[in-house]
From TrEMBL:
GO MF assignments: pyrophosphatase activity
Gene3D superfamilies: 3.30.420.40, Exopolyphosphatase. Domain 2 (3.30.420.150)
Protein name per its UniProtKB record: Exopolyphosphatase/guanosine-5'-triphosphate, 3'-diphosphate pyrophosphatase
Top-level taxon of the source organism: Bacteria
Taxonomy of the source species: Bacteria, Pseudomonadati, Bacteroidota, Sphingobacteriia, Sphingobacteriales
InterPro entries reported for this sequence: ATPase_NBD, GppA/Ppx_hydrolase, Ppx_GppA_N
UniProt cross-references to PANTHER family, sorted A to Z: EXOPOLYPHOSPHATASE, RETROGRADE REGULATION PROTEIN 2
Pfam families: Ppx-GppA
Species name: Mucilaginibacter yixingensis
Length: 317
């Protein structure tokens, strides 16, 4: 069961796996381009980076969770007689010494060949997914994709990418470095902001040359922001039927401020925050707020489409 090229020459279902630091995603679909029919969509909180993300190793319990999930994904792929498979691993597998052992065991168990993609390729796939969602217009936007291990920044519009870069400053890494006490203390926020200021200089330089007026957050934390805001307004909310959403700036600032100031117990009872994100949503809020403030951005949107959708649309086109 080898990784497919970017063209699906055989008719039938295709499978895409996005194997991230926090979450493993499986998407099996059939059809044409962005009008595909979803057959299976599983999001599993594997937490591959737990306990080892900044130490460069996948811990044994996380390793086992990952293998168990991949075995299950393999069963779904067989059941749906999938014709083409693309499995991509990102930051956690890129930066750990036993990532290759994980990849070898998955191939032995399931036949699935995992491809480790670099940050540049990850950003390009994310752009494809966000653009296919219809969330981009003619104006320049900054796509912000906050993963557990890395964060991708893409300055773009609906016609092209102007600049892109991946930084190893994902929510799990930042939490491990700066969010050891809860609620996060003011001095830790200050240290985190200084770290972002130093690390994200390439982004700030690019944005001087190519100013952006809007942030588009792709999946992950931004789905949580959207769900919490809508549920608290009493609105029905279903991620399955949502591709794009524009935030009211006041709503977005109020929610992220509340999350940053809250304790674990307070976040855990907020409807719309899944257990995996109860703690990492603080780092995600801080990164987003810092970048918005630094670049003077007041428009915020989100899309549920990202890397896996970008790859899938390519396979089905």
């Amino acid at each position: 069961m080898t990784n497919a090229e970017q063209t699906n020459t055989t008719k039938g279902p295709v499978a895409v796996m996005d194997l991230g630091t926090n979450t493993f995603h499986l998407l099996i679909a059939d059809g044409q381009g962005s009008n595909y029919q979803e057959l299976v969509h599983i999001t599993e909180p594997v937490k591959l980076g737990q306990g080892g993300i900044n130490k460069g190793v996948i811990q044994p319990d996380a390793f086992e969770r990952g293998i168990t999930t991949m075995n299950r994904f393999g069963d779904h792929i067989k059941q749906h007689h999938v014709k083409a498979v693309k499995a991509m691993a990102t930051s956690a597998m890129r930066s750990t010494s036993n990532g290759p052992d994980f990849i070898a065991q998955v191939k032995q168990n399931t036949g699935i060949e995992i491809e480790i993609i670099d940050g540049n390729a990850e950003a390009a796939y994310i752009y494809q997914g966000v653009n296919a969602s219809g969330c981009l217009g003619n104006e320049r936007s900054l796509i912000l994709d906050i993963g557990g291990g890395s964060v991708e920044f893409i300055i773009c519009n609906n016609e092209r990418i102007y600049w892109k870069q991946s930084f190893e400053i994902g929510a799990a890494r930042l939490m491990d470095k700066f969010h050891q006490t809860d609620p996060i203390p003011a001095d830790c926020i200050g240290e985190l902001n200084e770290y972002l200021e130093a690390t994200l200089q390439p982004l700030f330089e690019a944005a001087k040359q190519m100013p952006v007026s809007r942030v588009v957050g792709s999946s992950g934390a931004f789905e949580t922001f959207a769900e919490v805001i809508e549920l608290e307004k009493g609105n029905p909310f279903d991620l399955k039927t949502l591709k794009c959403m524009e935030f009211e700036e006041d709503d977005f600032i109020a929610l992220t401020s509340r999350l940053i100031a809250s304790s674990h117990q307070e976040r855990a009872v907020i409807k719309g925050i899944i257990p995996l994100r109860v703690d990492m949503i603080v780092s995600a809020s801080l990164v987003t707020r810092y970048v918005m403030h630094k670049l003077g951005i007041h428009q915020v949107a989100m899309t549920t489409w990202a890397l896996k959708e970008g790859v899938l649309v390519g396979l089905l086109s």
